[in-house]
Amino acid sequence: VNRTLSRYGTTVFTVMSALAVRHGAVNLGQGFPDEEGPEAIRRLAADAVYEGPNQYPPMRGLAELREAVATHNRRFYGLDINPETEVLVTSGATEALACGMLGLIEPGDEVVLFEPLYDSYLPMIERGGGIARIVRLEPPDWRLPEAALAAVFSRRTKLLVLNSPLNPAGKVFGHEELASIARLLLAYDAFALCDEVYEHLVFDGASHVPLLSLPGMRERCVRIGSAGKTFSATGWKVGYASGPAPLIDALARAHQFLTFTTPPNLQRAVAAGLCQNDGYFGGLAAQQQAKRDRLAAGLAAAGFGVLPSTGTYFLVADYRRLGFDETDAAFCQRLIEEAGVAAIPLSAFYREAPPVGFVRFCFCKRDAVLDEAVARLHRRF
Ligand code: PMP
Ligand code: GLN
Fold first, then answer.
1. Would you say the ipTM is above 0.90?
2. Does the N-terminal or the C-terminal CB of the chain have fewer CB atoms within 10 Å?
3. Does the model's pTM come out above 0.90?
4. How much distance in Å is there from the Cα of 272 to the middle of ligand 1?
């Protein structure tokens, strides 16, 4: 056989987690919590496996989960979403994103993206026939470059992909920035696919504002949430998209041929999860904020330059302060081999010419694990 089988590489998260295991490293690379999410929600999932439902649920999701997603939209953002026509349940946010990219893009359409960008976006956009137009955000504050953004918009622009809070930067887009994006979407009659999986992981009193909630955006945006992030169960892979009926229809047409449905027992548990009291959501953010502070202080004491993070599970650190000027991939290799700590090179979030000197650390780990990582860094650097 002499045929090309896949143009895709291996995702950095798999590569770094495998290296971490091989070297017995503390894994602050791939983003996943090392504690289980709420017990009551896990019990509901277990009960639903035992008692059912276990057959194909409706293609767009169990009614109770679609209702819960609509209620959650109203409760946190004052949005009026129709659970019958304006919600789609998917197998993780990743699938909702793929549905958006396959369902909303026609070959030759241009798609505006911000760099750093999550690694599943470009492969899916390109499979959908889209042409990526990338706008770079620069450390340390990752501010929206308004002129550069306006310059990539044209009549060919069909879609913008916005991840806020932004993995790996920890940036939460502000109201002014969102308003600039909204003006361009209106001026060029374009849509937005909003990856809001970290919507409840926002710190320091900052608030997450869905682009969909801005004037004129209700009929142009789909916003995507993830039970994996909101209930600390990244393996569950339950995502939910909310938006205007024509856009949700377009995503659903792709969804019917990708996975068609999502495990009904998990959907039932996620529906209950979304209806938990405010204490749950506030508690999650407070707990992760404390972990961020713990790791940030430890990294700073070990000599890293720590960039601010107001959202997500991640913070970005500058290793040039330690006296290294090698590539971030080489530094991550050194971190694993010499210090026994795994991180993610920031270049994994860039198509080309990444900024030099930055790695991403994940802080959603038990305090003892964060402390052990910091102790190892102190020993080596
Ligand atoms: N988008 C971003 C920005 C992410 O960091 C992740 C990480 N899991 C996802 C999407 C995927 O979410 P899910 O696990 O629900 O597919
Ligand atoms: N979203 C997670 C991260 O950024 C990884 C998800 C995955 O492994 N695909 O670390």
1. yes
2. N
3. yes
4. 21
